[in-house]
Amino acid sequence: MSRQILVTSALPYANGPTHLGHMTEAVQTDIWVRFMKLRGHACLYVCADDTHGTPIMLKAESEGVTPEQLIEQVGAERRRDFADFGIGFDNYYTTHSEENRRLTVRMYQALVAAGHITRRTVRQAYDEEARMFLPDRYVKGTCPRCGAPDQYGDSCENCSATYTPLELKDPVSVVSGTRPVERESEHIFFKLGDFEPMLRKWTRSGTLQQAVANKLDEWFDVGLRDWDVSRDAPYFGFEIPDAPGKYFYVWLDAPVGYMASFENLCARRGMDFDTYWAPESQAELHHFIGKDILYFHSLFWPATLEGSGFRKPTAVHAHGFLTVNGEKMSKSRGTFITARRYLELLPAEYFRYFLAAKLASGLDDIDMNLDEFATRINAELVGKLVNIASRCAGFVHRGHGGRLAPAVPDPELYREFVEAGEGIAAAYEAREYAAAVREVMALADRANLYIDRHKPWLAAKDPARALEVQAVCTQGLNLFRVLMTCLKPVMPAMAERAEAFLNAPLARWREIDEPLVDATIQEYRPLATRIEPAQARKLVEAPMSAGEDPQPAEISADEFARIDLRIARIEAASVVNGADRLLELCVDLGGERRTIFAGIRTAYDPARLVGRQVVVVANLKPRKLRFGVSQGMVLAAGSEGGLFLIGPDPGATPGMKVS
Ligand SMILES: [Zn+2]
Description:
Elements: E1 4-9, H1 20-38, E2 42-49, H2 54-62, H3 67-84, E3 91-94, H4 98-113, E4 117-127, E5 132-133, E6 139-142, E7 151-152, E8 169-173, E9 181-190, H5 196-203, H6 210-222, E10 227-228, E11 230-232, E12 246-248, H7 250-269, H8 274-277, E13 284-290, H9 294-307, E14 315-319, E15 322-324, E16 327-328, H10 339-345, H11 348-358, E17 366-368, H12 370-397, H13 411-429, H14 433-454, H15 456-459, H16 466-486, H17 492-502, H18 533-537, H19 557-561, E18 565-576, E19 579-588, E20 593-598, E21 613-617, E22 623-624, E23 629-630, E24 633-634, E25 636-639, E26 642-645, E27 657-658
Parallel strand pairs: 1-2, 1-13, 2-3, 13-14, 15-17
Antiparallel strand pairs: 4-5, 4-9, 6-7, 6-8, 9-10, 11-12, 15-16, 18-19, 18-21, 18-27, 19-20, 21-24, 22-23, 25-26
The protein binds zinc ion (ZN).
Zinc ion is lined by residues 143, 145-146, 148, 156, 158-159, 161.
């Protein structure tokens, strides 16, 4: 029976570029959604940028733009990043929307009416120069317990003491650099404790992973405290209707962003909002989140939903963090990898595959060891899986015109693969992706063994055995088709290329129940290629910048003469999808045309380059990039901050030697 499922992944805070941590969560969710759709369920995936709070307000201020402009700009980059990683959102929205304002206010008013909201005065650090109340993390100073300098206003990284900002010795406002004072303000609180009986039951009803439910028991034991849901102006968010100058705390309206994004989708597709969000809804609601935001999603969120007359989530799936080479992602260690940087170096689906191969349903961190990354892509994806298709395709074309045999010669083996697929499906459903991938690779070994045993390359030498060759390869290609379908949620683009090669597009998992026979397939083109470990390691190397170059060693005139510098004329220039530093140039070297990828996009508008003469290194070894082969290098001075192409004086012509 088809299930109605609404899925969300956590809202990334719109305060900077997306990185591989964001992609880990989005990919994990996307695999589950694609799997559900492939199994024939009505599954929808919505998300939104989390756009409210003090950091965004201050960042916009420092960049001289409005918060709305900042989130618009960040949002556009993110949509592109997620799309390039193949994330198939049904709707990607923002929490700074009218839908979200309406829903948040409706929820708040319902909570007020039901008596779940209270007010009381709090004392808080206030910056008199910036004229704003300071969140704890915006005050720094010396730890009152151990004396460690430069600690945040809520806790000490050195001795783990917790305290209030004004207990710090020498507290300083991060915003203005002045000493904050203490000031009183009335705040609005949500009475979380009203929901303790419901929460105790809900958290133990199969909605949460065991480890998470256990963690929540600790929180119940210390007691559920009232939650401060208001912030004083200036703040970027929604003003509270009955409290002028006060705004909803970002964590109140952020998860409402899931509903708002869904409402926006309903308006676009003419669907019914209440079918999914009314208390009696039979639809499933699944949230995928990082383990750091469990408190918000498994206590505040179900409680505010319950208190305001909406349904509660079916499940909250928490996951661990992505580490790189065993270390936390960190800018100072160079292990902070933006989504864009990854895409400049490697195919998105290799990340999706590697992640799936490492992911289980628990809270453990996922380590992206870059050597292991290259090894698994090369040994598993290329060496085992794609190998099945590339070994068989040629024989079906040679002598059989690309026609598959009328039947598979070993239907029993085919049946075993299809049945094993059901076990793989169960693993996906339970978010045990690593187990699913492991099983696919074990089956790939069996498929390769089948081909090894029947040696079509030997049989093909004997014209009398032509039908046998065709049959064996038909079997091999059908086993490949089953495995590729099993991996379709992980690598949708590669699966589609495989389907195009087999001339058999596939919308539902069940379509592999019957083998593909007596059909014509297309020419085989490589579905995945090997990567050099050095290429993966580049992810953690900072891109070279001219300022940091060491003084180069002396060279002789002969050594210099080995560089073939030529004048070239740019005939065409265009941007490269998926590489925001590169332009693709077509240059004329005096009769010879070359394609060169140049890292000058930040400095030059492609339209204005056409017709310009430049200096090119003509004998540079061609370099294979993801987008094509670069056949030379264009000379420029400076670095990314300021790039200047080198050109000749008037009179020079394309092809002229430069010396
Ligand atoms: Zn301390």
